[in-house]
Amino acid sequence: MRTSWADLAANSAAENVGSGSSANNGGIVANSAPTRPAYVPPHLRNRPPSSDPSPAPAPAPAPAYSGPASNTLQGGSRWAAPRNEYRPGYGGGGGRGSGWGNRSGGMDRGREREVNPFGDDDDTEQPFTEQETTGINFDAYEDIPVETSGENVPPPVNTFAEIDLGDALNDNIRRCKYVKPTPVQRHAIPISLSGRDLMACAQTGSGKTAAFCFPIIGGIMRGQPVQRPPRGARTAYPLALILSPTRELSVQIHEEARKFSYKTGVRVVVAYGGAPINQQLRELERGVDILVATPGRLVDLLERARVSLQMIRYLALDEADRMLDMGFEPQIRKIVQQMDMPPPGVRQTMLFSATFPKEIQRLASDFLASYIFLAVGRVGSSTDLIVQRVEFVLESDKRSHLMDLLHAQRANGVQGKQALTLVFVETKKGADSLEHWLCMNGFPATTIHGDRSQQEREYALRSFKSGNTPILVATDVAARGLDIPHVAHVVNFDLPNDIDDYVHRIGRTGRAGKTGLATAFFNENNASLARALADLMQESNQEVPAWLSRFAARSSFGGGRNRRSGGGRFGGRDVRRESSFNRGGSDYYGGGNSISGGYGASSGGYGGSGYGPGVTSAWD
Ligand SMILES: Nc1ncnc2c1ncn2[C@@H]1O[C@H](COP(=O)(O)OP(=O)(O)OP(=O)(O)O)[C@@H](O)[C@H]1O
């Protein structure tokens, strides 16, 4: 028997409230070094002060795949700068392992102290142990069917210990309290470490960020030494590029990547629009191994010749389907195909998302070479950890209905604390107006949308995360990727037109094994979404109201980009399995492998009217 939504909210709140503030420090951590330090490439960092700065190349493990590892840019003589131009300066240390050369060992030079992104001084000597509490409920993921396709797929691992990530990175995994890899990590990390290109689809909140960060950081640590331009050069030459669609998501990925790369000697820099470019330029001048960026700001930096992509070995697109849709595709093509980035097969490319429409998969194959397709759970499915409710609410009743929900939630709150509630609306004006109305009615709320300044956006997010303002009214700018602990309830005050957007929105709760609640207000205006919504809910074992089923039966296949129309429940995975897929021989499909659970034939397809309306102005 189902409990009431208020009970669910209370339960969810109990799980989500009170395990300490997660206030976000936000943005780039300013370094307090009095003088500007020289950039030191990873292979020259962490050497004893008296040692010869000329590096002995790290003995890189023989790669199983001859792609990026044989990159002619690696260790090449493109840059004739004398090696003693580089001076140790960026912190590092702690490495104990063999086979990781001089990248993981060493010490802080005192020239520039690496800020501890964990904000503590813990030591990390304890081994990985199952007993440690991480808050993640792995049982929730055990039954998820996994499918891979492509040639020679490397086998998954069960533990981090099985993966050769190096001591420094392993220490950081412990600091993050990750005891064992999530399913997407179990599969994706060995694939990426073997050098293969990857298109990976896994549910929201299932740990995709680490799945692409670990192989990049590990790869840079053990890669061949790279010679880059001398100190003081104005152009930065990152080895890895991680692109994401929003500023806040780029900031978040940067924060995560800094934790994972702490004391590895790998330097991560973020560049995104709306923030002063000068500070970002200064960070880039100090050197960058991994650049996390939004496309607009990156194009700006490329046009100013402040960043060159010619040494890129790793390209990761987070929210890849969004990055390749109509709104972003031209910018992505410019960055990836029309500047100086090495082509597919030379660089290694990783695409990650919780949703991967087929037309986007087809497009994405332009950026990949002989890739492996990985689906953890059905492509575009929502996690069963989220209890989904859909209620029929007329436009004119939405505010009072929201008020009822919030009152009940407050009454059921834990220790008088309002659980964090994220309310999605369609327009920026609508967001401001609803925020004002909520505040007037005694519910502290803030907003995040594209008309707010970046400072306001970051402030709003911090205030929400810390619980100071427990209601955040947002447009789709907050729909993807944001990992905000303790969000107990997502309300779709206005439903999106696209079911994939709905999947990402509700995915702001029910993350990392925790449960969550999502409530949608539905009325005639959303009829085109009815079928996709009903199918999605059914797939995730949710109660579908009879009235929604009637709407779904009435609605034609034409609206809502109904990805399930014409397909079986588990149909529609790797597009290469479809006979219609033909990229002129530039790629191939090497067979499929369903690891657990069975999938029907790939007969699905979009019955919808083409890809959605493109990008709303909320996006960066
Ligand atoms: N192996 C692990 N053990 C414990 N927690 C983990 C592990 N991997 C990731 N997490 C945590 O799970 C949460 C969700 O991870 P992440 O943000 O990478 O999800 P995601 O799959 O990228 O979600 P989305 O699709 O919404 O972008 C984060 O708080 C992260 O720290």
TrEMBL record:
Residues 89-104 have a biased composition (Gly residues). Residues 1-128, 557-590 are annotated as: Disordered. GO terms for molecular function: ATP binding; hydrolase activity; RNA binding; RNA helicase activity. Residues 158-186 form the DEAD-box RNA helicase Q domain. Residues 412-552 form the Helicase C-terminal domain. Its EC number is 3.6.4.13. Residues 189-374 form the Helicase ATP-binding domain. Keywords: ATP-binding, Helicase, Hydrolase, Nucleotide-binding, RNA-binding. Residues 9-33 have a biased composition (Low complexity). It catalyses: ATP + H2O = ADP + phosphate + H(+). Residues 50-62 have a biased composition (Pro residues). Residues 106-115, 571-580 have a biased composition (Basic and acidic residues). This is RNA helicase. Pfam families: DEAD, Helicase_C. A motif (Q motif) lies at residues 158-186. Belongs to the DEAD box helicase family. DDX3/DED1 subfamily.
